[in-house]
Design a protein that fits this description.
The protein has about 325 residues and is mainly α. The protein has one domain: P1 Nuclease. It contains 16 helices and two strands. Strand 1 and strand 2 form a beta hairpin. The radius of gyration is 21 Å and the shape is globular. The N terminus and C terminus are likely disordered.
Amino acid sequence: MRLSLTGIVLCAFLCAAQPPWGFFGHQKINHVAVFTLPPDMIGFYKKNITYITEASVNPDKRRFSSPDEAPRHYLDVDHYGKDALTILPRYWDEAVAKFTEDTLKAYGIVPWHINRMYYRLKDAFLVGDPEAILRVSAELGHYVGDAHVPLHTTENYNGQLTGQHGIHGLWESRLPELYAGNYDFFTGRCHYIKNVQFAAWKAIEDSHFAVDSVLRDEKALSEKFGEKKYSFETKGRQTMKVYSADFSKAYHQTLSGMVERRMRAAIIMTGSLWYTAWVDAGQPDIKRLIEYTPSEEEIQKRRLELEAWKDRKVASRDHN
């Protein structure tokens, strides 16, 4: 398990047991991503924006019930050494051949899983299954959001190796909840992504390059603030120890807009992946799905037809 018992207790104590990005962050990313879509898509997504927003946190809800779920949320880049971003294969089969699947899953697979989810979304568009389109879209947005968090790219993910327990929740929950009201989330229109796998890796690279400053700046401020780093806040009937407003503000200012930039990047990438999957599926008319729910029999028939088409395509390529 990635979190030690000590880490779980301290994170709960300091950060009110917030999941990655906090529910707020993931929901905000998916919600705003809807408004990056073109006219032929936005109607369907806006009609279902409540689901797209709320289901964004579903992967976190099953992290401790499904053994396969946790590695999909991170990649411990530094486990592979200082040249990791050079030696790690970008494609899954090549990575498995070089490091084994067990090793990859032990240290996280988020960039490869984003690519897998893109293909699932493309298939959902091809089949015309509105439930699958919405479910995969919402969860794809979650993994994209995680890939944009610097602390999701390091073994020191909660500062546990440097005496900075709780920094995970500070960066991705406390700061967005305090300051997102001042963020500019207007990212413009989504765009077509030529290579989804490389785009996922670019997100990881950009996140990992920020790890040093995330940790360094927090440590410097901790030494300056001392015990004033923490305060107590009451939520409902509970009073809990949290990072103080003054410390959070100082850290936020020191990061110079980093959290806002990573959220904006996650928003535009999420919308762009939805759009890319739709384009690569032949730009099907999803407006017709707004008020239409096909029967399970129809969906199963389309799935079988899609699998048969894929089998014929592979066979034809092998033959040639």
